[in-house]
Amino acid sequence: MIGREFIAELENKREKVENLFNFEKFKVGSGTYGQVFQAFPKTKNKLFPKKSYALKLIECIDHKQNMILSMSACREIALLRELKHENLIQLNRIFTDQRKVWLLFDYCEHDIWQILTYHRKSETDKFPSKGLVKSLMFQMFQGISYLHNNWILHRDLKPANILVVGEGSKIERGRVKIGDMGFARLFNSPLKTFVDIDPVVVTFWYRAPELLLDTKHYTKAIDIWAIGCIFAELLSTKPLFYNEEEKLETSTPYNREQLHKIFTTMGFPKIEEWHNLKAMPCYERLTKDFASAAYEKRSLAATLSKYKLQNTSEFRLLEKFLTMDPTKRITAEEALKDSYFYEEPLPNADAFYGMKIPYPPRKYLPNEENNNRTQHQQQLPPRQQQQQNIPLQQIPLPGIVKQEPRIQP
Ligand SMILES: Cc1ccc(-n2nc(C(C)(C)C)cc2NC(=O)NCCN2CCOCC2)cc1
After folding, report:
1. Number of neighbours of residue 403 by Cβ within 10 angstroms
2. Is the ipTM of this complex over 0.95?
3. Which of 351, 375, 381 is nearest to 112 (CA)?
4. Within 10 Å of residue 382's Cβ, how many Cβ atoms?
């Protein structure tokens, strides 16, 4: 059997995602890493229990009949196949056909961005309950602790990446699933208030000070700072380091406005607090751009005083997350042992325990697929290809549905 007939034979045998699920009209997200659809098993298919799934279409490039999988897709598949924890997104299956790669996940109706947006806009329900906040935080730390113990850093923790399972799933209702939606596409949107901010806009609000000072060492402490920002936002419903300036990514991670926001909120870091500050790559620029005296009266306690958080276990824990010196920041393991998680209300495995879920379901986005060529069919110039991508055939994609031995290119 020659190659083309063999491929055709292969195609007929494969389970096609279009035959197994209804999803085309239910797009819930799109961005740099691909598009995401809510998917419902078709009645005739017994392979998948009757519940909601998420199908992520990976952007491939079709080059001279060769499917080219991006490096990021390869990294996502390789990473997710190794990870298994109840508070992390779980990759269920991989489907491929001649032109596309689909990743199948369990569906999560909610995320912390959506929860915060609901409370910001509500007149009568302005804050998430104490029990909800505690459960979300505890589950987030369980997931991050698993990642950090496996020496994996998330590096882009923000409310939109903290998903929560909704109604419908008895066992997993209110379960936190940390993901990486990778929607951080450059977005030159007009200035907006944070209430309407799109979860896909690139924000620096969760970036640790050492990142903004161009540290060369990505560490676990960077994730802890981001979780601290999310904790503060859950307690106040306002982004702690909100910065209305939405800048396109600049060549250096140094962001003067974001640093100013952090110092205005926390005060300016003292050398005795952050011994290694002078060693930061952008320290010279920092001393030129900022006068520490301007932030003398600033502190986290002063900033959050209007939320009546002083002398609470929440505030004491928050200070440990938002410690300027990354080497002094609390670890995920230490956070899980904090007294905050051992006082009423105790964290419940179901973040929505004892409450009716008031948060709206996800909105469906228009699916451009129907009326124009999709990204994966675009041709990349050959030069770009060599740098960025590996032909699909060369990537062992174990666990693909009904995978036959691949023909070598
Ligand atoms: C390049 C790259 C992109 C993403 C990941 N990544 N990393 C993670 C961990 C568990 C490590 C946080 C999760 C993902 N991928 C997704 O979350 N994917 C989204 C899955 N969601 C979509 C919406 O519905 C629920 C499942 C890795 C590498």
Report:
1. 14
2. yes
3. 351
4. 9
Beta-bridge mates of residue 325: none
CA 82/CA 75 separation, integer angstroms: 11
Can you give the pLDDT at residue 396? 39
Task: Kindly report the backbone phi and psi dihedral angles of residue 119, in degrees, each rounded to the nearest multiple of 5, phi listed first.
Answer: -70, -35
- Integer Rg of the chain from CA: 23
Least confident residue range of 198-207, 271-280, 324-333, 368-377: 368-377
Mutate to test the pocket of ligand 1, among 26, 79, 91, 140 (most ligand atoms within 8 A of CB): 79
Strands (E) in 267-408, as ranges, are 389-391
Q: Which of 35, 37, 80, 165 to mutate to test the pocket of ligand 1 (most atoms within 8 A of CB)?
A: 80
> Is the pTM for the entire model greater than 0.90?
no
8 Å CB contact between 321 and 231: yes
Which of 237, 240, 264 lies closest to 120 in space, CA to CA?
237
Residues with CB under 6 A from ligand 1: 29, 33, 36, 54, 56, 72, 75-76, 79-80, 83, 88-89, 105, 108, 154, 163, 178-182
For the CA atoms of 260, 263, 266, 271, the dihedral, rounded to the nearest 10 degrees, stands at: 160
Buried b (16+ CB within 10 A) or exposed e, 235-256: bbbebbbebeebeeeeeebbbe
Catalytic residues: 156
CA 260–ligand 1 middle distance (angstroms): 31
Structural contact between residues 208 and 222, judged by C-beta atoms closer than 8 angstroms: yes
Closest C-alpha residue for ligand 1 atom 17: 179
